[in-house]
């Protein structure tokens, strides 16, 4: 399905920052397939299906596709919204009103949010019952308290669990689907091999407590129509990871979620920071239910060091994608949906490695018509790794959450936010065939 014949390159226009500056980094050329540019696809409305904002929920699966209750394809075009750090409050609520953020997500073309959460939020009663004010005070975040009082006064004295539910409700009111992502157990930044959150049996990763957390979250959002999926665990990793425990516990987690909330799709991650699902090739999961299982994978440029910057972009793209298809992409051919639940780039446009990786990613995501979730919505954090108000340069919004950080990037991914016509041959080759015939 993936073509390596990508010798003609597409020049990306200079990236404009939200402050109005134009950056002209020595970024070379972005690698795309040998076809008319993505900007053409975004305007070729006869080829693309406008993404419906109201689907016939709940969702299920049909071979490799996610579909609605009527059997129509629903393409997940999501953005990650962080809510798993020490404060355990969705980021940005000190900067903008909750409803305004939800509306901005929709206006940028996303139909879905992957909303992160830590196990301790629902299994540690002391933490879960803290109010927003108390949580922020415990970390000395007085400026954030003032910001939430100004922008979201109704939530400042609600419990952390109530606020998490309020975020989901606001997204639902704006026709945005939600995937609940168990990102970590102990609240904090993710991820490393030694943070105690990596694999079953680690210091903070008790399998029984994890099952309890999944069950409580699934039950809490049962009957909430815009909660369409639950991701069981983000980026399994570390020295304890092994295939046998993966099957043992991930199958238990899937059964627990489905038993508590049969409406949601259940999303299973792999090993090695969610890059490796190769063990599934000859040993499928065995569950009591069907039509609800999706697998997820992560793909970043930095995963390959500085290969994109230092190597020939076409060759690096071919090598990386060959490996991706070998360790995870084969699931599409086996008839399973594959959700790229994290990808992203430094949106300042100055990272050559990221820029070249992005060209490859966009091409492959288009050809395979993948479901995906961008990392990240977040423009800045209350507190990350000890730094107050840290700027998130992978964030689609800027530091004050008021403007889009890079409008050129949004234009590039807009071509991927709608599915290609089901009746066309799959992927970009089918689109090109139609263009040629026209």
UniProtKB/TrEMBL annotation:
InterPro entries linked to this entry: GH, Glyco_hydro_5
Domain Glycoside hydrolase family stretches: 97-377
GO molecular function terms noted in the UniProt entry: hydrolase activity, hydrolyzing O-glycosyl compounds
Membrane spanning stretches: 30-49
GO process terms (BP): polysaccharide catabolic process
Listed Pfam families: Cellulase (PF00150)
UniProtKB keywords: Glycosidase, Hydrolase, Membrane, Transmembrane, Transmembrane helix
UniProt family annotation: Belongs to the glycosyl hydrolase 5 (cellulase A) family.
Protein name, entry field: Glycoside hydrolase family 5 domain-containing protein
Taxonomic source organism: Populus deltoides (Eastern poplar)
């Amino acid at each position: 399905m993936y073509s390596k014949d990508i010798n003609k390159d597409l020049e990306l226009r200079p990236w404009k920052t939200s402050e109005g500056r134009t950056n002209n980094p020595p970024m070379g050329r972005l690698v795309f397939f040998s076809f008319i540019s993505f900007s053409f696809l975004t305007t070729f409305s006869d080829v693309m299906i406008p993404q419906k904002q109201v689907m016939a929920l709940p969702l299920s699966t049909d071979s490799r596709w996610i579909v609605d209750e009527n059997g129509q394809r629903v393409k997940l075009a999501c953005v990650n919204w962080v809510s798993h750090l020490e404060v355990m409050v969705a980021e940005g609520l000190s900067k903008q009103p909750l409803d305004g953020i939800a509306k901005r997500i929709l206006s940028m073309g996303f139909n879905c949010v992957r909303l992160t959460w830590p196990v301790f939020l629902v299994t540690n009663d002391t933490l879960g019952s803290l109010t927003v004010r108390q949580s922020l005070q415990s970390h000395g975040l007085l400026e954030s308290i003032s910001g939430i009082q100004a922008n979201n006064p109704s939530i400042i004295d609600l419990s952390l669990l109530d606020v998490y539910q309020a975020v989901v409700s606001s997204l639902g009111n704006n026709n945005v689907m939600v995937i609940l992502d168990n990102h970590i157990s102990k609240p904090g930044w993710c991820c490393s091999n030694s943070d105690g959150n990596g694999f079953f049996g680690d210091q903070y990763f008790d399998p029984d407590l994890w099952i309890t957390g999944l069950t409580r979250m699934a039950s809490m959002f049962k009957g909430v129509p815009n909660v369409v999926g639950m991701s069981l665990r983000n980026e399994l990793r570390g020295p304890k990871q092994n295939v046998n425990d993966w099957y043992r516990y991930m199958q238990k987690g899937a059964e627990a979620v489905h038993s508590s909330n049969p409406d949601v799709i259940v999303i299973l991650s792999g090993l090695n920071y969610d890059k490796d699902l190769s063990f599934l090739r000859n040993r499928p999961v065995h569950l009591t239910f069907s039509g609800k299982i999706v697998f997820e994978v992560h793909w970043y440029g930095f995963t390959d060091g500085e290969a994109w910057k230092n190597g020939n972009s076409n060759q690096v793209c071919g090598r990386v994608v060959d490996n991706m298809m070998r360790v995870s992409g084969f699931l599409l051919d086996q008839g399973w949906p594959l959700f790229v639940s994290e990808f992203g780039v430094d949106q300042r446009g100055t990272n050559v490695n990221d820029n070249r990786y992005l060209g490859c990613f966009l091409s492959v995501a288009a050809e395979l018509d993948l479901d995906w979730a961008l990392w990240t919505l977040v423009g800045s954090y209350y507190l990350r790794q000890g730094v107050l108000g840290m700027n998130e340069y992978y964030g689609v919004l800027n530091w004050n959450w008021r403007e889009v950080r890079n409008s050129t990037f949004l234009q590039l991914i807009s071509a991927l936010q709608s599915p290609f016509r089901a009746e066309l041959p799959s992927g970009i080759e089918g689109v090109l065939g139609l263009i040629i015939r026209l």
